[in-house]
Amino acid sequence: MVKKALKTILIYLFLISTVSCEKSTENKDFSNVKMNAEPIGLEGKIGLDEKPKGMVWIEGGEFFMGTNDMESYPDERPAVSSKIDGFWIDITEVTNLEFKTFVKETGYITVAEKAPDWEEMKLQLPPNTPKPSEDLLVAGSLVFVAPESQVDMKDISNWWNWVEGANWKHPNGPGSDIVGKDDHPVVHIAYEDAKAFADWSGKRLPTEAEWEYAAKAGSNSRFPWGNKLKLGGVHNANTFQGDFPHLNLMEDGFSGTAPVKSFPPNEFGLYDMIGNVWEITSDWYDAAAYKRLQKQLPELDTAISKCFNPENPYAIEKVIKGGSFLCSDDYCVNYRPSARRGQDIYSGTSNIGFRCVSDNQL
User: Fold this and answer.
1) Which of 42, 95, 104, 207 would you label with 194, given CA atoms 20 to 30 Å apart?
2) 229 in Cβ contact with 329 (< 8 Å)
3) Which CATH fold would you assign to the domain 2-358?
4) What global pTM score does this model have?
């Protein structure tokens, strides 16, 4: 019973950081949203022989962040004009091999490899939430486990399990490993893990605006490649096909993470900006950010809270972008550049990773 109580707390922290997911039944025409960015791609301003390894230069410009399409989530609307300075960005998500190198050279221990800190956890919970027993506060992370049959879709604990011993080296818990998966994106990454890697590599995490600008790649469509999820019946990203969460038909060839570069890049030469794993940004999550920018709501009082999630006044979350291999057209259509979600900074999951950017123009 006590162990179930701990799972309830951990699932609760994940649930309140998740934007409500509802089926979107139609791909609308985004042609009324004008984009000013021109595709830069691998032939950007800086010569290919001068670019940092594994990165591409994105020329600055203006674009519309978010969307005016009503078949989107409320926190994506309305579209707002945003100006971006040029920056370098990783062509792929950070891989297991890259993260393994970082850990080997620094001895870094990720959040998932350490016992949960109750002082941090309770900051995001209602006052007087009872503390679980110390012997239950053990290292682990949230892992997607497909149920055997259809379940109550209002209860995400039906497919998300807190697994003791789950971390980047053991993505599904003890007995699992990343052997043969050096080219898969690293997962079970919390914000401080991503930031530590970025600092070590001389880079930083992208802002939400930078990430979305790079993902849209000058496009005014629903997806970077057009207004339909599939082009000519071909999948362009690693997502969930079938009946979520119990039946993944794997039409794209994958049931979990896919090796980076498994799908075509966008017009900027970037891979997996949609699907595969969610990507952490440096921005605090504000569910009403775009409405505030349009003066429809007052500015967020950051002296009270750095972020705003209407489902939880105690939220401490960063924006994550891009959706993951679990995004499905019958449940959660977050596999779009404008989609956004808040993620608790003190934890990761089996579908959250990241990529880095840099300001240094060689």
Assistant:
1) 42
2) yes
3) paralog of FGE (formylglycine-generating enzyme) (3.90.1580)
4) 0.88
